[in-house]
Structure formats: structure tokens, C-alpha cells
């Protein structure tokens, strides 16, 4: 296993219809029957419709959408807590849908781990015994399981709480247990279904930081569900937006904020703090002929907010934006940056122009 | 218009021969298989005799100590232990010790039997709606059919004695055990169960690690109910030869000995309270770390 490179997750043409006679309606849905029509004519609920997502190994894929859009349904297909009506779910190249019961059990024990919105801890077990649940199920020796569990309990900041019961802990601490339980499994795939939605905002930020810090080290393939855009933008390497069981847009946070696919997405991103999301490349102007950068240069990938912080105290003129290799991509000034923070104007086109000219 | 005023029933001769046919059929069955059935139940008889011998032949101070130790172990409450002590001493002082020991041993065996049959059956029922639909009406019959009625076939099969008495008591007392096990498992939090699934638990691991522990308070309530119902059957069981506190009560009814009846009745109440408080306190202690301390 050591030198095997995990192949990521690929979801292909996934359909899920809820109802007693789901199979009979797949064809119609594939030919374009809508969710409303299906419900009206046949009394079946269209949970997911033609989902295609590729999640590279070691990345955080965020899935976003309003309540009832099918997020939980989708994530439960990855470890097959829900059986699809049609389609494939390839995890590390193996189709989860085709596994028999034994294979599926082994797959869940070793390849995936899950964190739940309502924590779902065992109330009669203390923190330690909750954390080692996955290892116990795998059949690992108790002493080894305790070692591993203790390491993760410490890692999520719960050292000293091993013998407390879940009801003696706050929500944030309970979810740390949930996270430790999932991480103790050391599975390449981590599934998080609105893991932080039940936490209050400060604790939530805290837990996001915990996850991001850990991820630098563990490099899991994480599927993270949320209906909070700020959370999505902060965590997601890739974001997919779901509505009524369909993916209506997927891409990076930049793609989502700068080029919302439709009104639904635009509505989502309207309230977002752009300064923290949009990168300077999206705002910069093409480099002027004869422009000679002086002093500070802003590396590409810096957010607008960061960039403002960097040049706020400097002189009030244009500053260069440079690529990792040091190539000059464009230039920005304080006014452009400040402007971009407050209006959602179409700097996308500007960005494209700048980039094509730079390259 | 005769049929209007009087229900047109089956004619007398047919009815009589129907009843006779059933009775005779059952009697023939008894003659043919009585021994086999008796043999089948003989381990139960040994168990009953051993339990009774232990309770009646162990010196009373030791029995008292054992009961108090169990009460303390289960409840961790001095009040419960003290209550047990006072009850036992009063029972002994009014010369009802031996009968009480016989009754306790009977209840003990009956409870063990009810748990051994009831919990597995309850587990099976919780897994299959069909089985639940099948078993539920049977349990209804067991609980509502007057116990005297099912005493008849039991006595016909096994005669008078401890085992038929035990069977009659178990039939009456086991339904809550089965029902509450089924209910407890069905009420287990779906989210926790899903988590167990997500970590790849086998169905035995789910049962052992999640369903039974989470259903335990409800199952304990079932055990408590079973014990109480078994005690309520003591007097009826004594009619078919079960020794214990029921027999003096029966004698008191026949001869109008008011005080004898009251004393033995109170002794039954006393041990009922002991069983109840101890098992409830134990159930509560099991639930301790579930009370919501933190929002
Ligand atoms: N077992 C089921 N039977 C019928 N319909 C279902 C079932 N499970 C989910 N649905 C339907 O599928 C749709 C998607 O549900 P899902 O739970 O995936 O939404 P969600 O995006 O996770 O919402 P939330 O944010 O509230 O958790 C909903 O319309 C829901 O009613
Ligand atoms: Mg959900």
C-alpha cells in the first residue's frame, strides 16, 4: 500500500430516484423528465440527476446547495450508504456500486471515514472508546487501537478528555471527537456531511482551521458538504453547486465567485466577502509598456484583502503582480483593489484580457 | 321471527361433539407425547429445584447478605439497601421466610427464562416487520387470555407441579420483555446506526456495540415489568402446585383467615418493591451518561 498512489474519486452519470419502482423511471429521467414532472406523474422523488464529478486525490471537494438539493444523498453514495439507481462511483478506480456486501464492508472500514452533522457519537462510550470505534470494527488489537486513538485525540485538542462522555462535552468538542474518530481510521477518503453546520460561528472557524492544518499533513481526499458559502470558499479546492439534484456549476472558488453560472449561483455569491476570495489576477490591469516595478510585488494567488494589507502603507501608485517564477503578469493599485471589494462588476473579462496579454 | 330474538347458534349436538372432538384430540396428544414434553422440560425442573434448594437451605443471614450486596451493586444507594434489609427482617420475623425464599427462587427462574427467550425474540422482531405483525397478536392473546384458561392445557400436558406453574407464569409475564426489546431497538437513533454502518460494522457488531447498549434502558424497563407481572401470578400459580407465598394466601381465601392472607399478601408486595426499586435504580444508573448536561 505504501507506494500505491490513491486514485481519487470519480462519479459518473449518477442518478438516484427515491420510490418503490425507481428503476422503471430512469430512462425517462435520462431523456429529460424533470424532478417536478416525475413527482407529479409517478410519485417518485428525483434525488440526484446525472452527477459527474472528479475529485483528485488529496484535494478538498466542497459540495454546496440549499436544503433538499441532494447533498446528503450524494455524499452517501460515495460509501454506498445509499444505493444509486444508475451510474458509477469509482473510488481509487474501483466501482463502489458493484461491490458485494463483504467487499463493501472492507471498503468502508479501510477506504472511507465519515463525520456527521449531528456528531452521531455513541452516548454510552467515552471519548477514547468513541475514537477507536472504527479500529475496533476493523478488528485491531485494543492496545494498538488505544495508541492510535490517543494520538488523534491529542491532535484534535482533546487531551485530558479521554474518559469524558459525549454529553459532558460541548458541540464543538463533540465534533472534535467525530473528527478524531474518522481520522483514526487513516482512510484515504474523508466524508464530511455538514460536519460544522451545528456549531456556532466562532467554533466553526476554529474547526475549519483545525481541518486545514491537518490536511496539510494528511493529504486526504475530502468531500465536504456545507450550505455556507464562506465555509465553502475557505475550505474548497473545488466546489460543486447542487440544485434539485443537479450540479449546476463546478470549479474553483474563483470560478464560482467571478463567473456564477446562473442567477441561483449569483444569489449565493452576492453576499460573500470578495476581498477574502478573489485573487489579484482577477483585478489587475495589463502591464503598461515601460512600467518599472518599484519595491513591493504581489505574488499571484494573493487575495484582494491581503494585497490591500501589503500595499496600504506604501506609495499610492501601481504595484506589479508577479507569477511564481517571477514573471510580471500585470499591475494593480489601491483604488482598483478597493473597488473590487465592494462591487461585483465584471472584472472577469478584465482578468482574461490581462492574462492573455501577459502570456 | 325466532332467529331475530334469539341468536341462531350451532345446534347443540354438533357443538357438543365439536368440543368433545377437540378435547379428545388433545387428550390423545397428551397421552402420546406427554412424556416427551415432560422430558423436554426436565432441565427446567432441575434448574427450579436447584434454585429453590439454594434459597431455602442457605442460612438466612447469608441470603440476607447476598440480597443486600446485589441491591448495593445495582443501585449504589444506601436507602434502597436499608429498605431491603427492613423488608427481609420483617418477613423473617413474621415466619414467612421459607415461603418467601421459594417465591423468590421461582421469580428468579422465571425472569431468567423470560430474558433468555424474550430478548432474542425481541431482537428478531425488531429486524422484521413481518415477524412483528405475526408475533404481536400472539402477545396480545397471551396477555389478555384469562390465565386459568391456559392453565388447563398446561396441566393436562404436564400435570400439577413446579414446571407447569413456571410455564403459566412465563406465558403471562414474557410479553413486556419481548415488546420492549423490540421497541428499544427500533427506537435507536438512526444517525448513530448510520455512523456504525459508515465505519463498516457487521450486523453483529451493530447489535453488540450500538443497538443493545442504546436499547438497554428500555430493555431494563421490560425486565422490571416482567418481574412485576410474574409476582402478580404467584397466587394463581400456587393453584397448580407452585410452593411459596401463594399457597398460604389460597388457604386464607378458602378458610377466611384474614390475617394470614394480609401477611402473605404484604410479603409479596414487599419483595415486589425490592425487585422494583433495585432494578429501576440499576436502569437509572445505566442511563447516567445520557442525561444531557451540555446543550
Ligand atoms: N429516503 C428518501 N425517500 C424519499 N425522498 C428522499 C429520501 N431521502 C431524501 N429524499 C429527498 O431527496 C432530496 C434531497 O435530500 P437530501 O437529504 O440529500 O438533501 P440535503 O441537500 O442534504 O438537504 P439538507 O441541507 O437539509 O441536509 C429531498 O428532496 C428529499 O426530500
Ligand atoms: Mg443533508
TrEMBL record, chain A:
InterPro entries: AAA+_ATPase (IPR003593), ABC_osmolyte_uptake_ATP-bind (IPR051921), ABC_transporter-like_ATP-bd (IPR003439), ABC_transporter-like_CS (IPR017871), Gly-betaine_transp_ATP-bd (IPR005892), P-loop_NTPase (IPR027417). Keywords: ATP-binding, Cell inner membrane, Cell membrane, Membrane, Nucleotide-binding, Transport. Belongs to the ABC transporter superfamily. The complex is probably composed of two ATP-binding proteins (TmoW), two transmembrane proteins (TmoV) and a solute-binding protein (TmoX). The complex is probably composed of two ATP-binding proteins, two transmembrane proteins and a solute-binding protein. This is Quaternary amine transport ATP-binding protein. Coiled coil: none annotated. The keyword Transmembrane helix does not apply. It is found in: Cell inner membrane. It holds the Pfam family ABC_tran. GO terms for cellular component: plasma membrane. It comes from the Bacteria. One of its GO terms (molecular function) is ATP hydrolysis activity. It is an enzyme of class 7 (translocase). It is a peripheral membrane protein. One of its GO terms (biological process) is glycine betaine transport. The keyword Cell membrane applies. It comes from Rhizobium fredii (Sinorhizobium fredii). Residues 33-269 form the ABC transporter domain. Gene3D superfamilies: P-loop containing nucleotide triphosphate hydrolases.
Automatic annotation (TrEMBL), chain B:
This is ABC transporter permease subunit. It comes from Rhizobium fredii (Sinorhizobium fredii). Residues 100-279 form the ABC transmembrane type-1 domain. GO terms for molecular function: amine transmembrane transporter activity; carnitine transmembrane transporter activity. GO terms for cellular component: ATP-binding cassette (ABC) transporter complex. The chain crosses the membrane at residues 54-72, 78-94, 106-128, 148-174, 226-245, 257-275. It is a multi-pass membrane protein. One of its GO terms (biological process) is choline transport.
